[in-house]
């Protein structure tokens, strides 16, 4: 399945903060065909460090398909022979240096000044992401969504959709999500991810573009923390045990590492090459600000919630608190739990486990 | 119960790394009286950021007693009317700027050079801590310990005692401990605590003493991470919810905080005032290096293991893996689980829950 990245433009976009962005670009991709009355579309919302690339390949030679390729495609649980699948990048997408990521963010040129936004880029929210998606699906001729789905921050967007546009769709599938708000422990976790960026002297209060210095060390450390938090003890035991990194004896050298740390250091450094620090800070804040607690009475959707049993970040307990609250409000909530040792990331890597549950939910 | 801090000196102490420290000071305190044949002593080993001060007060006016005062004292589970309780600071104790902490560490003067150790202070291990304790209890006239106990890093020392001096005692009580080694996820967690120190420009590779610059910002951030990891989502929900810190609107200002983060920032900054960054790095490494897997056949002790149900750091699952392994080796293992919402810290704050189990174990 070959897919093409496209760009949707919004001339003027008012954010939840009150700020107004002009000439906003939103990157998106679609799979399958919209039906005549515009009612067979399924929206996929991406996770913290993800993009619109939820399935397929841009080129035959791409080594990996999109993150949920196991469930999106012809004949798959989200069947692109029947459904028109839409996925877009959020504003301030963290992968700002990836060629296919064109969405407006802190490293974009502000058309009102002709200069890069940098520290002047406003705070954006899950509500803003969802409002941009609504404009996109409207522009494509969608009259009503068949379902909204997404993992992690995609689950936050899914919840936000249920409160913000309750009449526009019936089926909500939050995967590895929290409950109806970001709980305080999660809020603090997100702040810890940001801290190495804020503490990096090269961050320069966010105005590092064009200075020849970028907070790559802080950004790498942030992604090390993100990766670590998204995994689980059992994964670490299985893959690493107490093996050393072979860069010295940790009994003799303070900077000699264990194998797990070398792996996480390298994973963080790799992500830092293609991501933008200012964007990470804004995406973290968007997650922290997420709450539909005060609007939960508006929700009309039916839910399929898919937690991961070993998730340490958006834990099955958080998800269960959300399910309890939704049932109390009279909503129908089915739950399918992914079983693995990969923590939060199992919501991406093992989503295929939920194929039949998803197929049944989508067609119900 | 008023207690006095005393100092034990070791003229020459060979470490596991091969390094030799001279004129080593070990701070300690004792409660109760040693019996005539020297067999009623119980050793208490302290946690990562703790000291020998496990019970009582140094002065009547002290606002708080030692950390396990709920179970150590006259008539308590560890009854100082019957037992002689000994507790000592580990080498490189992190609380280097607390007046009662005299143990040799990186901020001590190296008697061989007349200058502060700084970066030249060697890596120390749980084995070293236990060897120093053995010398201390020998010096006090203890012929055989009645029990060895301790929370968190104190549990690591307790396990190490069972493998290193198996004939010297029968009862081991590791509280909120891991299994028989530091698992890789824990190893990486410990490294993350260290990272803000290593990344602080004021760290100066560990030779910051007397330069007028100390890595206090990195140290505060390290203690923020430590405190966060030692707690639990339920604790955060109960105490903070999504309240703001009242230092600005997080929808408008990137540096505006939620209440939980302000609390953790302040907790971290407070600890940074009395702790030493080099010492934190060495204590973290000592935890990372902990393993008795290759010596587990030597173990003879009976165990009372006390995990905390909500512990996210040294999880009940890690503790259970240790219990399974010990039973497989033919050891008797009783388990008492502390129930609370305070995570790892419940092993300190709610230890009173285990009073009767401890009393029965100690007298059995």
Can you tag this structure with a few keywords?
alpha/beta, Rna Polymerase Sigma Factor, Chain: A, about 375 residues, 2 domains, 10 helices, homodimer
Q: Describe it for me?
A:
2 copies of one chain form a homodimer. Chain A is α/β, with parallel strands linked by helices. Chain A has 2 domains: 6-181 and 292-363, Alpha/Beta hydrolase fold, catalytic domain (Rossmann fold, 3-Layer(aba) Sandwich); 187-284, Rna Polymerase Sigma Factor, Chain: A (Orthogonal Bundle). Chain A has helices at residues 126-139, 153-164, 184-198, 216-229, 233-239, 259-274, 277-288, 316-328, 346-349, 355-363, and strands at residues 6-14, 20-31, 41-45, 72-73, 78-79, 84-88, 109-110, 115-116, 145-151, 171-175, 302-305, 333-335. In chain A, strands 1-2-6-3-9-10-11-12 form an 8-stranded mixed beta sheet, with helices on both faces. In chain A, strands 4-5 form a two-stranded parallel sheet. In chain A, strand 11 (302-305), helix 8 and strand 12 (333-335) form a beta-alpha-beta unit. The mean pLDDT of chain A is 98.
Quickly describe the structure.
With 364 residues, chain A is of the alpha/beta class.
Low-confidence stretches of chain A: none
CATH class category of the largest domain in chain A: Alpha Beta
Strand content bin of chain A: 15-25%
Element pattern of chain A in H and E: EEEEEEEEHEHEHHHHHEHEHH
CATH architecture of the largest domain in chain A: 3-Layer(aba) Sandwich
Provide a count of the helices of chain A.
Answer: 10
Reading side by side through the largest sheet of chain A, how are the strands ordered?
1-2-6-3-9-10-11-12
CATH H-level superfamily title of the largest domain in chain A: Alpha/Beta hydrolase fold, catalytic domain
Biggest interface: chains and residue counts?
A: A-B, 57 and 57 residues
For the biggest sheet of chain A, the summary is: 8 strands, mixed
Share of helix among residues of chain A?
A: 25-40%
Q: Total strand count of chain A, please?
A: 12
Class by alpha and beta content of chain A: alpha/beta
């Amino acid at each position: 399945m070959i897919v093409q990245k496209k760009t949707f433009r919004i001339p003027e976009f008012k954010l939840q903060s009150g700020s107004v962005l002009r000439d906003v670009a939103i990157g998106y991709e679609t799979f399958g065909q919209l039906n005549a009355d515009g009612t067979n579309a399924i929206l996929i919302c991406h996770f913290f460090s993800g993009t619109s690339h939820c399935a397929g390949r841009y080129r035959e030679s791409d080594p990996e398909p999109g993150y949920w390729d196991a469930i999106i495609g012809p004949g798959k649980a989200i069947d692109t022979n029947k459904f028109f699948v839409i996925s877009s990048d959020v504003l301030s997408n963290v992968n700002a240096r990836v060629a296919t990521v064109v969405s407006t963010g802190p490293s974009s040129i502000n058309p009102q000044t002709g200069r890069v936004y940098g520290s002047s880029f406003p705070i954006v929210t899950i509500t803003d992401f969802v409002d941009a998606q609504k404009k996109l699906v409207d522009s494509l001729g969608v009259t009503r969504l068949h379902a909204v789905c997404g993992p992690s921050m995609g689950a936050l967007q899914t919840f936000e959709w249920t409160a913000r546009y309750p009449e526009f769709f019936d089926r909500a599938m939050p995967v590895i999500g929290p409950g109806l708000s970001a709980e305080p422990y999660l809020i603090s976790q997100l702040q810890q991810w940001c801290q190495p960026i804020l503490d990096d002297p090269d961050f320069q209060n966010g105005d590092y573009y064009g200075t020849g210095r970028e907070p790559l060390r802080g950004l790498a450390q942030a992604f090390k923390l993100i990766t670590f938090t998204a995994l689980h003890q059992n994964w670490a035991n299985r893959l690493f045990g107490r093996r050393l990194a072979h860069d010295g004896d940790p009994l003799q050298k303070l900077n000699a590492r264990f194998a797990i740390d070398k792996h996480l250091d390298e994973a963080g450094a790799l992500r830092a090459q293609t991501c933008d620090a200012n964007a990470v800070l804004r995406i973290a804040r968007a997650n922290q600000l997420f709450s539909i607690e005060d609007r939960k009475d508006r929700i009309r959707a039916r839910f399929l919630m898919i937690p991961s049993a070993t998730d340490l970040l958006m834990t099955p307990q958080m998800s269960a608190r959300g399910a309890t609250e939704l049932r109390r409000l009279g909503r129908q909530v089915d739950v399918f739990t992914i079983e693995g040792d990969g923590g939060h990331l199992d919501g991406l890597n093992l989503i295929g486990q939920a194929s039949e549950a998803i197929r049944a939910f989508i067609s119900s």
